[in-house]
Amino acid sequence: MTLQQGAFVQLTSKGDTTYQILSIDDDGDRCWVRRWPLSKQGSPPFAVPMNQLSQVVLEPA
After folding, report:
1. Other CB atoms within 10 A of residue 17 CB
2. pLDDT, tens digit, for every residue of 29-43?
3. Where do the domains of the chain lie, and which CATH numbers do they carry?
4. Nearest CA-CA partner of 17 in 55, 44, 49
5. In principle, which of 18, 26, 32, 54 could form an S-S bond with 22, CB 3.0–4.6 Å?
6. Could you give the CA distance from residue 49 to residue 54 in angstroms, rounded to a whole number?
7. Do residues 33 and 49 make contact, with C-beta atoms less than 8 angstroms apart?
8. Cβ distance 3 to 56 under 8 Å?
């Protein structure tokens, strides 16, 4: 699976929630994501191991 900044993904632990990739670490073992769509209070980014990404979502839910 090839991922890039801005792609929409789902996590294996939360398959019904969509996240947007903000950045991918240079070593390639984790990336920073935020929940999508953004909430009024904002959607704080957090790091996730790449092996927790279950699929690329073509259109955000």
Report:
1. 12
2. 899 999 999 999 989
3. 8-57 (2.30.30)
4. 55
5. 32
6. 11
7. no
8. yes
